[in-house]
Every structure is written in C-alpha cells, then in structure tokens.
C-alpha cells in the first residue's frame, strides 16, 4: 500500500489540533484560489496580488505570527505550516505572504511608532494595503552594510536618494519599508509609495518566481516627514532581524515545494509504464524516492524543532534555510528525472518549483552567506571580510 512522503514517520502526531487546523484551512484556500491558475500565472508572468492578499487577509494569514492591530498572534509552527502549504502551490505566492508579514509588517510592528502601527498594520493584515521591503540594492545584495541609499536631514524632514532592486510586491505596494544610511548609521522608513520622487519599474523576463510581482525602486529626492522614520530601527541589526524573521518562513516553505514535487513524482511513477510495468517498480526509481523522502522528513523535523524553540538564533535559522532550500532544490531536480521529458512540461509543477527554488536558494541570504554565519558560530572567527 502506497504511503504519502510525510506519513512514514507519522509526523502528524507531533502537531496539535490547532496546528493541523491552520494547515487544513491554508491548504483549502490554496486548492481553491491558487492551484487552478498558478501554471497560467507562471507562464504569463502575472499574479493577482491584491485579490490574493484580500483572500489571505480574510483567513488571517498576513502577519499571522504578530499580535495586535488585526493580526491573529499565531504560533511559529502554525505560521510555518501555512508557509509550507502556500509554497506547495508556488514559491511566489508564499513570497507574497512572507514579504507582507515577516518583512514589511514585522519591521513596522517591531520598530515603528504607535502612530505608524495604527496607520499601516490593520490594513496590511486585512490585505487591503500591500507592503514591500527595500533593502537589497543593484550593487549590494549580500553586503547590505555598504548600501548606497542615503538619508539626510533637511530641517525636520528626511530626504532619501538611491535605489533598491529585486523587491517583491514593489509594483503594487502602498507602503515601502526603506533602509538607508544616514550620518548616524542605518535608518528605516515607512514610505508611502505615492510620495513624489518614489518610482518603481517592474522587473520582467524572469525565469524564476514568475508568479510574483518584482520591482526596482528609485528614490529621487523623496521628502519624508520625521514621522516616517521608524524610531526604534537603529543600525544594520534592525533589517537583519527582519530577514531572520522571514527566513523562518522559507525553512518551512521550501518543504512545501519539495513535497509537491515528490507527490507528483510518486503519482507519475505509479501510472507511467515502461518495459511492461510501472516505473515505480524499478529499483533505481525506488532508490530515488526513498532518498528524497528521507531528506524531506529530516527537513520537516528540523523546521519543527526550530518552530518549537522560543526564539531561534540567526545561526539556527541559517542552518534551517541552508539545509531545507538546498535539499528541496535537489528533490525538485531529481523528481524531474523521474518524469522524464514530461518533467519540463508546464502541465506538471516540478520544473516550475525547481526554477523558483533557484531564487529561494539565493534570496534572503545565499547558501554561502549562511555557511559563513554557521562557520562564524562554530569558530568564533568572522570570514565575511577575509
């Protein structure tokens, strides 16, 4: 009797009823609103961000791990399971939710004033307002400490100049959390995207994360009142803490992409016959399926362990992202071999997941960056500048 990839170790027994409920609700909305359309969205390079945000907002999926201001205050594991189900449909859809909740909303919730929280968070939690997170720059991806975007005082106002690149949700955002360097160090700002001098060019011709809205932000003498500054955001640790928050969702999300690939490969192998019998009955195919299932369950246990910790450290989160995304990409590529020529067809999700995971592998910290974070923790020596 065939078993599901996550059933062999009876991992559901490790979840509470509430956690399973969140998973079920998220899976239902994904099955209803995303899966029937995702292949077409990917092929056309479009995604109905605002429509999806409103649907996700109704279910409390946006900023779900935050408290107050319309956020439901879910546990880390509940949030992780939601990310897993979202990315089982597509990494771009999970990215929409991660950027909204774990980057833009979290930055305002953690570092903003009460006025800023009241202004932005309820609408963002409901999906009525869209946020983006402007840290990465064209010339400064893995090295945000050397960002070129500048903020200078002009009386009581701030003037921002610079640019940000590869910013998810930017083309449709109502508010952008922008990080800039001032004379005092790195500062954060909640910038209404309607502010004069703020412009966005949508990034086209992507070969990955095509069902995601991505933009390049230009800041040309953007004048902001003092009230736009995030008052508690001081230094580079502020945006980096937001990245740690978002990476936790990636740890779970990558498992969703891997699971979807593996389930597709299992179904295909059981129905595809060669040499007179299903290819699932061949030893080499079963070896692939066994190895992939083992890595999927190991990654799940790692994610669950991190979710049960009160507050995982950046190094612990780096271990999770490094392992789970790397293994998920391997699983996607291996599943494509089981599907043979059909593996490149858009009728199956496998190569779409593999293409998406190429982006997930490098955004919010490349594998090399996470290796160095872990290495520094192990040795006490900083190799980033060496």
Automatic annotation (TrEMBL):
Cofactor(s) needed for function: FAD
Acyl-CoA oxidase/dehydrogenase middle domain ranges (all copies): 132-222
InterPro entries, A to Z: Acyl-CoA_Oxase/DH_mid-dom (IPR006091), Acyl-CoA_Oxase/DH_mid-dom_sf (IPR046373), AcylCo_DH-like_C (IPR036250), AcylCo_DH/oxidase_C (IPR009075), AcylCoA_DH/ox_N (IPR013786), AcylCoA_DH/ox_N_sf (IPR037069), AcylCoA_DH/oxidase_NM_dom_sf (IPR009100), Glutaryl-CoA_DH_mitochondrial (IPR052033)
SUPFAM superfamilies: Acyl-CoA dehydrogenase C-terminal domain-like, Acyl-CoA dehydrogenase NM domain-like
Signal peptide: none
Entry keyword set: FAD, Flavoprotein, Oxidoreductase, Transit peptide
Keyword 4Fe-4S: no
Family that this chain belongs to: Belongs to the acyl-CoA dehydrogenase family.
Domain annotation Acyl-CoA dehydrogenase/oxidase C-terminal: ranges: 234-378
Pfam families per the UniProt record, alphabetical: Acyl-CoA_dh_1, Acyl-CoA_dh_M, Acyl-CoA_dh_N
GO biological process per UniProt: fatty acid beta-oxidation using acyl-CoA dehydrogenase; fatty-acyl-CoA biosynthetic process
Acyl-CoA dehydrogenase/oxidase N-terminal domain: residues covered: 16-128
GO terms, molecular function: fatty-acyl-CoA binding; flavin adenine dinucleotide binding; glutaryl-CoA dehydrogenase activity
Name of the protein this chain belongs to: Glutaryl-CoA dehydrogenase
